[in-house]
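Box 3.1. Reading complex inputs
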Amino acid sequence: MALQSLDIKRRSATTTPSPQVRQTLEVAKLIDVSACIGCKACQAACMEWNDIRDEVGTNVGVYDNPSDLTANQWTVMRFNEVETADGGLEWLIRKDGCMHCEDPGCLKACPAPGAIIQYSNGIVDFHEEHCIGCGYCITGCPFNVPRISKKDGKAYKCTLCSDRVAVGQAPACAKVCPTGAIQFGSKEKMKEYAETRITDLKERGFDNAGLYDPAGVGGTHVMYVLHHADQPGLYNGLPKDPAISPMVSVWKGVTKPLAMAALGAAALGSLFHYVMKGPNEVSKELEDEMEREDERLRAQEKEDVK
Amino acid sequence: MNVSRRGFFKVCAAGMSGSSLVAMGFAPTAALAEVRQFKLAHTTETRNTCPYCSVSCGLLVYSVGDGAKNTKAKVIHIEGDPDHPVNRGTLCPKGAGLLDFISSPARLKYPEVREAGTNEWKRISWDEAYARITRLMKDDRDANFIEKNADGVTVNRWLSTGFLAASASPSEAGYITHKVVRNLGMLAFDNQARV
Amino acid sequence: MIRNPRDIQRYNASERANHWIVGICFILLALSGLAFFHPAFFPLTQLFGSPTWARILHPYIGVVMAFFFLIMALRFARLNFIHKQDIEWLKRVGEMVNGDDHNMPEQGKYNGGQKVLFWGLVIGMLLITVSGVLMWRSWVAVPVGVVRAASVVHAGAAVFMIGLIIMHVYAAIWTRGTIRAMLYGTVTRAWAKQHHRVWYRQITGDKR
Amino acid sequence: MTNTWSDIKNADVVLIMGGNAAEAHPCGFKWVIEAKKLNKAKLVVVDPRFTRSAAVADYYAPIRTGTDIAFLGGVINYLLTNDKIQHEYVKAYTDFTFLVDERFAFENGLYSGYNADKRAYDDRSSWQYQRGEDGYVVTDPTMQDPRCVYQLLKKHYSRYTPDVVSNICGTPEDQFLKVCEYIASTSGTDRVMTIMYALGWTQHSQGSQIIRTGAMVQLLLGNIGVKGGGMNALRGHSNIQGLTDLGLMTNLLPGYMTLPGERETDYGAYIARRAPKPMRPNQMSYWQNYEKFHVSLMKSWYGKAATAENNWCFDWLPKLDKPHDILQVFEDMYNGKLNGYFCQGFNPLAAFPNKSKLNVALAKLKYLVIMDPLATETSEFWKNYGDLNNVDTASIQTTVFRLPTTCFAEESGSLVNSARWLQWHWKGAEPPGEAKPDTEIMGSLHLHLRELYEKEGGTFPDPILNLDWPYKRPHEPSSEELAMEFNGKALVDLVDPADPTKIIRKAGEQLDGFAQLRADGSTACGCWIYAGCWTQAGNQMARRDNADPYGDGQTQKWAWAWPANRRILYNRASADPSGKPWDSRRRLVWWNGKQWGGDDVPDFAPASAPEVGMGPFIMNPEGIARFFARDMMAEGPFPEHYEPTETPIGVNPMNDNPAAVYNPAARIFKGDLPNFGTSAEFPYAATTYRLTEHFHYWTKHVNINAVLQPEQFVEIGEGLAHEKGIANGDRVQVSSKRGYIRAVALVTKRIRALKVNGQTVHQVGIPIHWGFMGQAKAGYIANTLAPFVGDANTQTPESKSFLVNIEKV
């Protein structure tokens, strides 16, 4: 029996492993950018299901609204007008949001035990009750996804609707997607399906169509089918080879044991030094000298009084 | 501070045990993690149809309360009906936002009247609304109804009041509207089909 | 402890207060910082009310510490310029650590080790303050690459400083009669003559 | 829609033109994506803007707004010239062989019979077929006669060469030809194209003719009546199909029956005119049953008061002097001829063109009654909202009543979707405050009026006092009662005409379909095409079996479709004249030697053997589909390109006749003539449209949608932006002859300048969804700009093509 409703694979700021024995289904969401019409139904469903509402903003000269991810907007559509070599136009629309990395930078960076959880099905979830609001998850994320709420100072992002997945349903965005550009299922099935889409796209002249499942973060549980998999940057700067920043790896990797060892050594070294060498005390001669001087001065004072 | 050698040992021991406690007793291994409670668990599910465009997607409307006498149903969530052969559970951004339509602050709650020349709404009862509206209708109909045209042909029409019918109300409402409106002799009668 | 009117004043009240403000801040920052740094120390956040309070307070305490450290550093900077005899002292520090200070060159108010510690802390504070500000999401927004670099620097500087402070504290404990200087402001003449003879002579006029 | 939403997955080519299905109907559009996945279908989008439909298209071509007839005329010419038509289909199932009256002529932009003073074709007698002595239409099966429809059609559209098309539409010639190739690829029996269109075709002064041209392309290709084909009008509102079916329009009665005109004083003549005899031997001409439908309707409305003696209350029906469509009504209101007006779930101030005229018109009313779930702009037309609605409140003497109504979740009933499915829905919550369903409000208004007439008497009270009102709770008729009423029931025991000993339905029982209707007053039916929706077996609209045994998306047991639960109209045309499916992979209904059957309810006489030669278009007296529209269209039998009423080029390149620059029969009121702008003053072609994030003027009240698209904007191309010094995100003023709006400029590569008739035409895109009320940021009503001019047949306002200027503010 487990306490939690989904098996946990990893939790933030925890040095011992979570129970690992049970093997559960690895899930994934596949976003077929070639079928996405940018209708934002996923955004609406996300807001509705998760009980979040962003502010009514302004138009800043693009269709992207809200114009960025926020603590109240866990997914946004990124619209890019790209001119092709033959004078044509492509309107590339990418649904942005948490990629649910197999090797999540946020979880690695998070200092609060249990604030970030990776379930054994691959979902990376934030537990705001444990979140301390430090923002290290933002520092750790290779995709610039988590956002701190101005209301409560906690970090929020897509949960892949862990509450729905836990009861056997698809995430709200995947269920709602009118064109089926968002699919949900086992990661294996998603990859199989992606292959059929890539074949179709290649037949339609997109020679570089491919799957975006970056190895640098151990693969992701949100994947893209891209018409131009060779240029992910066209899709609003999707990183080509994302990985946890080496800075973050150093910070949350080797630094920890080394620093602990160094500080431990310093403390223990001091202790043993004290034990072995004893204190550095004032020499007996000087003490005696000062004692004598004091005696002399006291005697002098008495005479002065008389 | 004059710490004796013995005193120093005491401090060290305390420090050691303290950090051991930190490392073992208070160590954060038991931080609980559970997904959010599935919010539809015991809601009432009602089959409905999206009121927006004419794809007419199937909806599942979830409301709190189980229909017992002492509960008042309140819709808390709407999603696509997976059985529906057209939308198959999907919705568009409008359909996915329907919850906020039902609970929009712009929803009208009471009959109101804006009297001629004034600048505000005044709440009235349904009875008053019906009485005043039908009085205005009857006076206008009685005064302006055309039984025969200039050529003496029976035309039985009422042109001085018009009616613009809905586009999203059920067919049953449309039918009764047509029955009532045409029966009064109205011809200035139209719906949203043209726009 | 027996008070002796002829004890030597080493720090005045203002200096002592300044030191302890910095010291307390440092302890609080080290406790909270370590809690964020390594899961094993996370329960230390409870000392601040809750983990979130620890996160909220940490940077503000840092600002307080940075301010008072700056004042303290300005106060003591001149006394910590490194001279020839300090280098000599540092060359022989091994003997000192080994418990034999007979061959150590005579020292002024601060010995070479203390001076190195001082400048180490100054550099550490500079790094930790600047990097800390860059990481402070509530008030500062900089590109994530800068935040990442700052995070590494902050952690490194913190470990460096905590190491220095362990040495600082141990040295104070190890060298008996030292702690009172920061508690009451005075040291015994014998202590002064033993550890800081040049300074002792300056104060007392004792030529021996 | 001739076909259904899920049937689109059977298409090989999808042409989206005059619509933007991905944005306006995303869940229906899913079946386009399915077609791409399942059939490797190609999606072709032709639109002034590179829309979100274009974003997932295989091919996109730009077009100048309002020039679709030229484009499609060019397609017809391409198909005929390159012999890309389905010969057997057009020969057997269309009027290709029919001979046309010798007097029929087309010259310099006008057909024979035009009256320039009336701006109308008042003599359409030449727009007819040649008739033989037997009364039937004369045909030439060789199609060589120069008066046969095929030859006339060919001649008419031979003028629409690719360079002419490109010159008018601004579509580069190579792109036009590429689109033609995609379309032509479905001329064989093994490939099918569907056309999806919406307001982008209807909201023009020549909208009906644009749609006809599209239908003609489909007929040439043999794409009507088959799976994956059809002309699919994507209707805008959830029940606008239903309300149109139910005849809530100035000239209609339920089931597309029509009101008598004031010259139709004789009941018999009224019926006869609507029940035409077949024009060719052995044709069905189903409207011959008109009287059965009409009498049954009158029995539903007037019960026992409707008798054979009083011609089933024929005199009680109002007689039309002219159509009182929305433009006519607001024109009359503007001229002070209306005292009262009701808006039931409708926001005309935002939805109709030329807002400033509407404001003046509404202020002339004595009383205005609003029934709506939401606070609409119309309900507060009298309130000053600064520049957004600058009115003098105190001078407006209109009494306005605002009655709160329920919304979908708070009521039960049926909605008819674009595919003619009647789907039942159930109440899920109580309405807010004292809101009431429309059924209850209408019922109460009737009862209050009846009471007043009973008490006081008054003008012509007969219909009011005699309206049949059998509802159990008279003030609030239930949806169930009303649905059963429009399905129809037997008033007496109905005897089988073939076997007098057999009773089909006992008195009081629900009818199974319109075939059981009688003209003798023994049946009642409120809407004949809905007969079968609530039978003795219960509510067919509530059926929820989504089984799809043939895997083609027809789901016969899901809800109920009119007519007779038929999912694809004209489905007889899916089989060849011998009754065998054109394409075995695409079989729909076929002749099994004894009768017609298959995966759909045959749109045909079920036992009529193919040898009899009955045509598949059984509602037409010809039995076939018409390229030559006879006298049925206001501006002529063949669609012809006319410029939008406000044209950016000032001339019609198809003629040099000043009377035929724009639609010579368009609905224009004299008083509006000064309100039309010219390209000298307003040089840019503008078009209004919907965005996928919003639904008309409703969702600006919906928080989620307001977040998704918060603020009013207009779209312009980079070329125009550069010319006018407008940067992305700047505020601009867009003005037409009728007013101005201010909004954020969205500068995009998706709208490109077009070369038209030797000049550069820039287009300005104007989304419509904002107004002076709501959760979204307040904005200007976009229809402030649109002209008060209507299509000649449907009177739909020309909101898609007009002229504007744009300036940075």
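In summary: The interface with chain B takes residues 3-6, 8, 11, 13-14, 16, 39-41, 43-45, 47-49, 53, 113-115, 117, 125, 127, 130, 159, 162-167, 172, 175-178, 180, 271, 274, 278-279 of chain A (CB under 8 Å).
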